[in-house]
Here is the input.
Amino acid sequence: MRQFPPDFLWGVATSAFQIEGATQTDGRGESIWDRFAATPGKIADGTDGSVACDHYNRWKDDVETMRWLGVKSYRFSIAWPRILPLGRGKVNQAGMDFYSRLVDGLLTAGIEPMVTLYHWDLPQALDDKGGWTARDTVGAFVEYADEVSQVLGDRVSKWITHNEPWCISVLGYGNGEHAPGHKNWSEALAAAHHVLLSHGQAVSVIRANVKKAEVGITLNLCPAQPASPSAEDQDACRAFDGGFNRWYLDPIYGKGYPQDVIADHVAAGRIASEKLDFVRPGDLEAMAAPTDFLGVNYYSRGIIRSDRIPESQNAPRTVHAEPEKTDMDWEVYAGALTDLLLRLKKDYNPKRIYITENGAAYSTGPDADGRVRDTKRVHYLRTHLEASLDAIKQGVPLAGYFAWSLMDNFEWAWGYQKRFGLVFVDYATQKRIPKDSAHLYRAVVARNGLDVELAA
Ligand code: FCB
Here is the structure.
């Protein structure tokens, strides 16, 4: 019997900018993603988030879809610029009311809300003052967290401060692939610090406003394996793991920044000295505020090859990517999810873990009969749920799984080309069609286990 624990929290996830549209409605302020998407060349298909899935107007239908799926929880994010159009100051009541209605609608449908406070849509007004590179943004985030948790805290108990600090800082400020599109590594490290600090400071504020608060943060984690046993590949793997995973996990779990990665940053000329000048006394303690859970976003593993020596001088590769890749060119490799969860337990021992995102991009659309046969996503889902169950059997406190995503949506710098949804969205008509993967997920949730078959 491949059953999940009885109280396992089955969910689906989305984020505000990726689905809501209505970017100029009801007093919403501009966000860095509106500005970024309006800048030619930044979004692969030249699109933006102004309509997206029109969820702002269709949220009732989307809640109905979730009720049909049978999920127990919905992870969504709040658009900061709907609440505080200029980042701080006076609350925009219409924006707050939207989320209040959504929360009520979810509760009526028997679906528990899980709120992410920051999923990348920083108010543009704050970016004008330095965005996450500015220490002032920490205070602004804490005020925002306070306002939202005061209003929704009577009905929402599960809170995620930030989604994926690595993406916010490295993609946003390091390599410029995401908004606000800067390319400066010392900015990226300062931004990461301010994001983590704002997380730590917000934890106690949320707890003060929410009776049975469960507070955590979501990290995107990428388990790394050296491509060969050579010393060079092993060291490259250490460095990759350090920069991608430990740089965020270590400070959150009270270990401070990893010394070996600080040394790497200096050696690479990303920062001038090992003294991280954005760190002030008390910051590391604040960042390590105890949390109730760790949110894990897992998509793929990394197979790491050193670029310090020419390929011809390195040892032959012994670890190869599986041939199956998603439309993101990400390898489909479920085994690393089990390894990752076991490692998190061993090295950080979080009270609880939720997989807050896991999923795959495949462009499969409806056949002539209207059915969306996304067999590759069905396979991805099954194997990753198996991997999750393996981890539970080995003692990992995995308490829930949120499929990314409820429906196809605006995939950031890729625009609408990459489809991650369990539900297909026809953007011309806004029609939603549950894919085969949605039917599979529905059956898994109903059985609370994996012994399910799909109709041929
Ligand atoms: C994650 C993001 C999410 C989505 C998936 C595919 O990095 O949190 O918004 O874009 O990737």
